[in-house]
Amino acid sequence: MTMIAPDPVAGDPKVDRALTRRRWLGRLRGGPTSRPVWRQPIAAAALTILGGWLLVALFAPLIAPYDPLAQSADGYASPSAAHWFGTDSLGRDILSRVIYGARLSIPLALAIVSLALLIGGLLGLVAGYVGRFADEALMRLTDLVFAFPQIILAMAVTAAFGPNTRNAVLALVIVSWPVYARVIRSAVLSMRGDDYLSAARLLGVGPVRALRRDVLPNSIGPAIVLATLELGNAVLLLAALSFLGLGPRPPAAEWGSMVALGSQDLSMWWVSVFPGLAILTVVMAFNVLGDALRDRLDPRYAKGR
Amino acid sequence: MSVSPRRLRAGALALATLAIISTTACTAGGGGGNANGGAATTLTVNTSFVLKTLDPGRVYEATGLTAVHALYDTLVTFEGSDVGTPVPALAESYEASADATTFTFKLRSGVTFSDGSPLTADDVVFSLNRLKNIKGSPAVTVSELSVSKTDDSTVVVTSATPNPNVPVVLAMPSTGVINAKVAQENGAKDGEDAAQGDTAQQYLDTNSIGSGPYVLKSYDPSAQVVLEANPNYWGDKPQFDRVVLRNMDVQTQKLTMQRAEAAEISLDISGKLLDGLPESLQTSGVQDTVYFLFLNADPAVSAVTSNAKFNQALRAAIDYQGIAALYGEGAAPGAGLVAPAFPGTLPEGEASTRDVAKAKALLAEAGLDNPTVTFNYPAITYKGVDLGTVATKVQGDAAEAGITLELNPQPLTTFLDEMRGGKSPLGFTPQSLNYPVADSLINNMAPGQATALRSGWTVQRADPAVVAAGEQVTETLDLAARATAMQEWQRLMNQSSPYIVLASNSSTVVATADLTGADYSAAGWQVDVAAVGRR
């Protein structure tokens, strides 16, 4: 009987929300047996790196020594006191361009992942909860997207719509939402027959409220982990599109296009190495953080501690 | 799909470190390895193959032209880097009529094909008629010509319109003379219906039937073409018994040349790629390519670019010296549309110059406040130069004068489609001539002509003086006077045409120190391999 007993204050929306949040956010702080994510040295390092990049992106105009678009006659200058990372063929300061590049890559990656999570999450919830025809149709749609290699499909989409920032983001959302749909759907499926859902239904809770109050909080965990991992992937895919000339239009300072510019003449190593390092650090940090989060939230992956 | 974070991470790391690793990998990578030392009489020519056929009647691509020039003789030819004065080859002399329509060629006696049979006027007539009638890509150069023989050693070429440059056309590799009898046995036709009937290409791709200094030994269009000295050659025997044209991308060519010791040539290392080559290598280049902007003169396409004051303001805003520096060694700031390699180019000292104050004043006169224009360009690297880098430089220069250019890199086909459709408000393109006669520029780029119309430049929108200057060039039959008229035309074009010439740039032959005669030629064949010798 206790199982179907409603929350003591059920019905008060504020309390409802607070409880919901605690149910899955609480896990981030860890149970009594393990340390929180930010106490693990590698994850802490990743967090520090990401925090650093966020600060760089936020305060780029204050940090950057030069205008990232300003050209000078001093082309292909190797790293020096005046230009720590050297200059490119047009005499633009690479340090400033790397710094400004963070303003593109990081927010765009966040936008891509949020949009994909939103779209994929919604569709996954619907597919899993409604089942039957909706499930079949949506899952075949995800199969269709999965059938293409991610980067090729993204290239096709950008090439079709025309290369610019908006279309690159759009293309990457189109290729990345199905992962979230799948993950959320499977989480929903695994709890579909659970007693507390049945109980909620018996109490007259409608499908929308059930999804929001019971299903979403219990299935969002894996999707959050995935999103963190995918942030790195999004940075990388965006850089790849940009490398191929399908990202933000020049002369924007974008890491991928900077690597591409440098790859024309590798004897000027600094032109591509520094933006390459920027990509490397951000992507690694997101991946490490995602791994740590997964260890935290998914007991199946938890290492023995 | 199961999302394995481990795999994701591995992929992410691999891709992100690519930029770093490739730097070291590339310098550590091995070169092609040259067969020098023992095989001292082999000349190796490294080039990134652009090769579809070795049939003289159809050859149009750079690598094919290099080979065909060594396999087949033409009536006249050019020596070294000169493309102004045709010199005798199969013809020991020629005469032009005063009206520049009839050209009489006296054939050299004692010339034989590589199989030993004699070369006669019939072979010349057959070859030129075939070139014209199979209507392949190079046929356009001879479409106005007709050919006949008056006796076994005299050939008369007539042009439908006066054209003092007929001998230049007859130096092009596509006019190479083939053995008519053998060709016909293998499906060659020269009649009016040859476009359908001629089936000789396959045979001519793998066999040479010319009288040139070399014969074809093997043909693999994806890997290499091997030429061997023609034992029956009528002229001085070439110094190398064998020439191997090797297909090689440009970065590998650079590595190969850095290690090459002897008897090796590369054709594609140019511009900035020349930096870092050993001092011992020799280079030869002629500026034969111009790079220009085109503004649309049609107000319906762009009210900004069709404004004459804006046109002049943009001209004044560009840093021509700075752009030439981007191209690296062998480039020059833009002057006229005729590249320095060709007769009629503007003399040194007439290069365009920058004047930002003037640009701003012109913009103010035009009543344009912060004009914004979409700037299309093909996202390609041409002759070692990334066009995007140049476009970005132009954009930066224009910004200093208060002009906003929105860069719009396009795939080459999209760019060409938009350009041909006349939709580009502002574009950027390189231009090389198919054969070393600049007159074709007038036929294409003068007001109302095909290329000009793509920029909306009709006769009505043009300055009548430009139209008259163009007509003056085509009406002048004396070559020296024609070159002078061409210069005058370009000066007027620089005042009001939709074209802004940014820079001219050179292709470069890079050769090992032991070679002589490895001169770049703008005549199409890049280098005359038969003229290459050893010190």
TrEMBL record, chain A:
One of its GO terms (cellular component) is plasma membrane. The chain crosses the membrane at residues 42-64, 106-129, 141-161, 167-184, 223-247, 267-290. It is a multi-pass membrane protein. Belongs to the binding-protein-dependent transport system permease family. This is Peptide/nickel transport system permease protein. Keywords: Cell membrane, Membrane, Transmembrane, Transmembrane helix, Transport. InterPro entries: BP-dependent_transpt_permease (IPR050366), MetI-like (IPR000515), MetI-like_sf (IPR035906), OppC_N (IPR025966). It comes from the Bacteria.
Automatic annotation (TrEMBL), chain B:
Belongs to the bacterial solute-binding protein 5 family. Gene3D superfamilies: Dipeptide-binding Protein, Domain 3, Periplasmic binding protein-like II. The keyword Transcription does not apply. This is Peptide/nickel transport system substrate-binding protein. Coiled coil: none annotated. GO terms for cellular component: ATP-binding cassette (ABC) transporter complex; cell envelope; periplasmic space. GO terms for molecular function: peptide transmembrane transporter activity. One of its GO terms (biological process) is peptide transport. Residues 85-447 form the Solute-binding protein family domain. It is found in: Cell envelope. Residues 1-27 form the signal peptide. It comes from Micromonospora phaseoli. Keywords: Signal, Transport.
